[in-house]
Structures are given as C-alpha cells and as structure tokens.
Amino acid sequence: MPPTLIQPQKSAVPTFYYIVFGIIEPLITFASLLEGIFDPRKVIVRHGRWSSGFAEAPGALPPTVRAVIYQMVVAHAIIGLVNASVLRAIRTLPSSALQEKIARSLVISLSIGDVLHLFGTFYGIGDVRWKAKDWPQALWLSVAVGIGLFIPRVCWLLGIGRYVATRDSRLDGKS
Predict the structure, then answer these.
(1) Do 55 and 102 contact (CB within 8 A), yes or no?
(2) What are phi and psi of 135, to 5 degrees?
(3) Residues in the chain with pLDDT < 70?
(4) In this structure, is the dihedral angle defined by the CA atoms of residues 57, 58, 61 and 63, taken in order, positive or negative?
(5) What gap in Å lies between CA 87 and CA 56, rounded to an integer?
C-alpha cells in the first residue's frame, strides 16, 4: 500500500503528526540548508548582535567558520530528510504496533535532540539567555521552533491524537 497523506484511524502516525514531522519540519530544515549555503554570514549575524564583528569584517568568512556553518545546515537537512523518509516508510507498514515501535524510536531521538538543541542554544549565548528582550528575531524563532516541535513530540509519546496499540487494541476487542 503506497503511503498517503490520510491514513486509517489506527495509524501510529496520523495526518496531523505526519504533516508536522514529515512535511513542515523537513521544509524548515531545507530552508536552513539553503540559507546556510547561499549566505553563511547572514546565518551568524541573524542569530545575535554579539556576532556583529562578522558582519562588519570585509571579505569572506574564515574557512573554518564557513565549514562549521555548512556542517550545521547539512546536519539539519539530514535530520529533516531522515525524518520524512522514516515517517513515510512507517506509514506503509500494515501493523500499527510495528509502526508505533519504529516511530517511538524516531520521536524519542528527536525529542532528545530538541532538548539538547535548546540547552546548547541557551548555554552558547551565555548571560544573554536571561535577557529575552535582547534576543534577535532569529534566536526567538529558533527557540520557538524547537519548543514548537518538542511539544507535539511529547504529545505523540503520550498517545494524544493517535492510535496506541497497547491501549487501543483492547478497546477494539483484540488482545
């Protein structure tokens, strides 16, 4: 059965979660990739006034700075690609329990990544983390997207809005 956007009610990855994690999140990661490749200086400058030295420096960014930015945006894009690919493959599986088992591994891994991303962001910006009014828009966006993806992941793990084999199979009269 080819994957479709709309799955039966017993899918471990129903439409809402598929749209958020299989479409929106990968699009965000690929937008990050394009910005990092085509304007790496902007990636640095948009994330904080404290990086303004890069904006004012003439010429190209140092090769090591460019390399780190390229590595970061490629890693983001790989996460988005893996997420979309795995979720698409999961939705083709006929067993809701198998779908759930594989999706749980993916969602737990990405949830850990969300927490580490937020921790790394707040640790990296130092004392500015306590002065949210001074955050640039890109930092606000990064934090909002991180939290905005983490909350639905937690909801998925809690079984909200999806079929949970161990819970719902009993209601179906199955053991």
Answers:
(1) no
(2) -70, 140
(3) 1-9, 47-59, 170-175
(4) negative
(5) 43
DSSP string, the chain: ----SS--TT-SS-HHHIIIIIIIHHHHHHHHHHHHHH-HHHHHHHT-GGGHHHHHS-SSPPHHHHHHHHHHHHHHHHHHHHHHHHHHHHTT-S-HHHHHHHHHHHHHHHHHHHHHHHHHHHHHTGGGGG-GGG--HHHHHHHHHHHHHHHHHHHHHHTTTS--HHHHHHHTT--
User: Which tokens hold the place of 145?
Assistant: 């997207």
Whole-structure pTM value: 0.81
Q: Note the pLDDT tens digit of each residue in 112-132.
A: 999 999 999 889 888 888 888
Token digits of residue 125: 């910006």
